[in-house]
Specification:
The complex is a heterodimer of chains A (190) and B (446).
Chain A lengths: L13 H11 L11 H11 L6 H11 L3 H8 L13 E6 L2 H5 L2 H12 L12 E6 L11 E3 L2 E3 L5 H12 L16 H4 L2
Parallel strand pairs in A: 1-2
Antiparallel strand pairs in A: 1-3, 3-4
Helix pairs in contact in A: 1-2, 2-3, 3-4
Chain B lengths: L17 H6 L4 H9 L2 H11 L11 H6 L10 E6 L8 H8 L1 H15 L3 E6 L4 H16 L15 E6 L9 H8 L23 E5 H5 L1 H7 L1 H6 L1 E2 L2 E2 L1 E8 L5 E6 L4 H6 L13 E5 L8 E2 H5 L11 H4 L3 H4 L7 E6 L4 H15 L5 H18 L5 H14 L7 H25 L1 H4 L14
Parallel strand pairs in B: 1-2, 1-4, 2-3, 7-11
Antiparallel strand pairs in B: 5-6, 7-8, 9-10, 9-11
The chains are: A alpha+beta (190), B alpha/beta (446).
Chain lengths: 190, 446
Amino acid sequence: MEPTTAPTKPQFSPAAQAEIKRLLTHYPEDKSKSALLPILHIAQAEFGGWVSPEVQDLVAETLKIKPIEVYEVSSFYTQYNLKPVGKHVLEICRTGPCMLRGSDELTEHLERITGAKVGGTSPDGTFTLKEVECLAACGFAPIVQVREKYYEQLDTPEAVDAMLNELKSLVHRPILPWEETELPNSLKNY
Amino acid sequence: MGRKLLTEHINVEGIDTFDVYRKHGGYRSVEKALKTMTPDEVVEEVKKSGLRGRGGAGFPTGMKWSFLAKPEGVPRYLVCNADESEPGTFKDRQLMSKLPHLLIEGMIAGSYALGARTSYIYIRGELLYVLRILEKAIAEAYAAGFLGENILGSGYSLDLHVHPGAGAYICGEETALLESLEGKRGNPRNKPPFPAVQGLYARPTVVNNVETIAAVPVIVNEGGDEYAKIGVGKSTGTKLISACGHLNKPGIYEIELGVPVEEFIYSDEYCGGIWKGRDLKAVVAGGSSVPILPKELILKTAAGENRLMTYESLSDGGFITGTMLGSGGFIAMDETTCIVKNTWNFSRFYHHESCGQCSPCREGTGWLEKVLHRLEHGHGSMHDIDLIVSVAKQIEGNTICPLGEAAAWPVSAAVRHFRHEFEWHVTNPKEATAPGAAYRGAPVLA
């Protein structure tokens, strides 16, 4: 039998702590609550793509605010996942302009090949499918966002396969340094 | 081919770096403003330019700037609205990723004009990768002495920061944006007080769209009068149009205001016509919130004049036969499009994005989504068509922010011009709900 231990309290990594410290310099000293949204982004990237109540409490402690001030914000903004997610969260845009270019068909296709249903995770834990509203890339529809990356013009099975192949070997890192940020293809060929 | 005031150098290799941007004339407006102009003179040039807010409302920027309260010893802020979320609109993302320094240059010149010592760019959380591009560019601008203490020895100091949202359309509304920037839920504030008096941290604040701020450098460089020579009437300058939907060449186009809509859709210089050789059915010309128009009314006004890409021409005929330029999110729909389905999709969006503060919007958007869902799926009645018009009317004007109107207008306009298509879903549900079904009857023009 596995020895039982009390769940350990989550802690930010040194890199995350440094980033939080930098963010806090952006706001007046008595307005540090402003850093709540960016810190929740860091927390979500740091702790497996979602923010558990424990992680939210850690954020509250970091900002010296009440936990409820974090909960009311995390439950308002749709990017924060409040339940465990798979390794990759595929956020599929479902709004008008994407629908005109085949987002319904894309969603069905993704459900078929990943084995996940919208709102759920595939049995092997690899993919979570999440329908989202307009991602501001309507000219390159249909679109899927995975963490910070946009996959665009997913209107052929080949384009979808290429995305899934890339994701197979992709390991999400907690904080992506801006030096390594890549432009989506469409932006390269404006 | 019109002039490109914002995007002339967008394809230059390395234009996202400080050095290349500077070589192509970048940051000249900061030098000119800080060394040779007073803040009020910069405001005056922006007033003369006739520049209007590019986020959707089209309010004169110079006038907005002149409303800013300037009490002694109280900090004031310039906040850039980069929360681009209006369905059909994707210009700011493109502009910021490719030309981050253009926005930063505009922020410096604008902050100087308004007397702001700290400014923020509030960017939607989905665009974290663009936030990183901007942060890199901002670091370069600090290193080059264009940000920070005593810029270019002028005595003027400015700090500029980027702040992410986290998925909420409502944060594009300026007071919701400010709440969000303060680390709260994005609930719009009651007005007055307006942000110009009590904005960020209850200090005087101006909130401007990315494209608006990006137009400031050219106005400072060439003068407001020169800028105002471009365009037609009160629609001065250039506008970025996000073209999407069923077009051969969707993408971002910088146009001189005044291009005929027909030319914009069909000419190879712009969208290259409707895809798959199909016919155009309808256009939503300024982002999902503005009234949809059938082909006949988007190409020509009710009086038979050519419709132009200007604030005035697109709104000719009011909401009976016209629409709005809005954010420039230009969504084209071909003859196979189901207007009922599209309207339901938009209503689902607004229901999803309503912050829930005002009951007419919170409840009304839910009703719209639900009733449109049953109409689209062949379970609706004739009464339902009047019901959605009535619900839309009851939301409009009864909420503290414009999301209510944004949710109501697309529904009223769709029923106004495509009532027969809604009725067809009621009378011929089997046919209307068959896969790929599309109503081909004539729209209602007036």
